[in-house]
Write a structure and sequence with these properties.
The protein has two domains: about 90 residues, Immunoglobulin-like, CATH 2.60.40; about 80 residues, Immunoglobulin-like. About 10% of the residues lie in helices and about 45% in strands. The chain has one helix and 17 strands. The strands form four sheets. Strands 11-17-16-13-14 form a five-stranded mixed sheet, with no helix packed on it. It starts with 5 loop residues before the first helix and ends with a strand. Bound molecules: copper (II) ion (CU). Copper (II) ion binds next to loops.
Length: about 220
Amino acid sequence: MFRRPRSQGIVFIGVGIFVGLLYLSGCGDNDDPLAPEHGSASGVVQDQAGQGVAGASVRIWRMDDEHTATTGSGGTFSFSQLTPGAWSLEVTAPAGFELDPGQAMPVALQVQAGQTTEVTILLREEDENGDENGDNGPQTVEILARAASFDPSDRTIAPGTTVRWVNQAEIFHTVTPVDHTEWNEANLSSEGETFEHTFHSEGEFSYLCTVHAGMTGIIRVEDD
Ligand SMILES: [Cu+2]
C-alpha cells in the first residue's frame, strides 16, 4: 500500500495556510498594495468627416501638473500616470484646421484611479478667409490667470485678435475693465474656466481682478 510520508503532509498544511493568508490579505479594501494610484486619459482629435487629425497639440493640466502631447497619424493621444481628480484639456489645431464652433475648450475631464477617461475633440477645416497675406488670419492669444496675477500682464495684439483669459487655479478671479466698456466684467470662477473677447478697435484697455489687489493687466491693440 502507498503511504504518504509524514513530511509531505506538513508541506500540504503549510501551503494551505499560505494560500489562506494570501486570500485574506486580498480582501482588504484600502490597503491593497496593488491598487492603482493613477488614471489615464486618451482620445482622438478628428475632423467633421470623422478622420483623425495628426499634428494637433494637446495639453492637459491640473494645478501645477501639466503634460503635453501631439496627435499621431490616427489623431490619437494618451496620457498616463495622471493623479485622480479634475483635469483641464486643451487642443490647439494644426495648420489648416480650427476648432469646431461647437467644441468646448478647454475640456473638463475627471480622471479616476485605474481607469482611462476617453475624449473626442472635433476640428473642422479652416476657412480660407483672412489667409491671403500668408499669415494665419485672426489669432487667439491666451492670458493665464495665475494665483494672483495675469500672465502676461501686458500684451500687444493686432486688431481682430481674440484674447482668451484662462483660469489656471481653483481660485475666483474677475476680468474687470478699467475706465472703458470694451467688454463687460467677466468672472473666472474655477480652474479651466475661460473668457474670450475679440478686439476690433485700436486702443489701450486696462483691466483688473477685483478679488486680488495688484492683479492688473493691459491689452494694447495696435495696427502695424
Ligand atoms: Cu484674481
